[in-house]
Specification:
about 70 residues; alpha/beta; three-stranded parallel beta sheet; about 40% helix
């Protein structure tokens, strides 16, 4: 079985749920998750432990792993 990974921000999505659905549609097993770039409705400063847990649980339930969280932006 081939495991395919890609950058989450290569999909145009508005919500975590949209991103998960697109990953599943394209058989993506792993993503680089850059919230600011991947989720249109992400609000800077809104990140919390509860929000992180919610995101992690949603991806885990979908069987998608997040080996890279964040990135560097010049």
């Amino acid at each position: 079985m081939l495991n395919f990974g890609m950058r989450g921000h290569d999909f145009e999505t508005n919500t975590i749920e949209d991103l998960i659905e697109k990953c599943k549609k394209h058989s993506v097993s792993y993503i680089q998750l850059v919230l600011k770039k991947s989720i249109f409705d992400f609000k800077e400063g809104a990140f919390s432990e509860d929000y992180a847990t919610q995101i992690g649980n949603a991806f885990k339930k979908a069987g998608i792993k997040i080996p890279v969280l964040g990135c560097y932006i010049n």
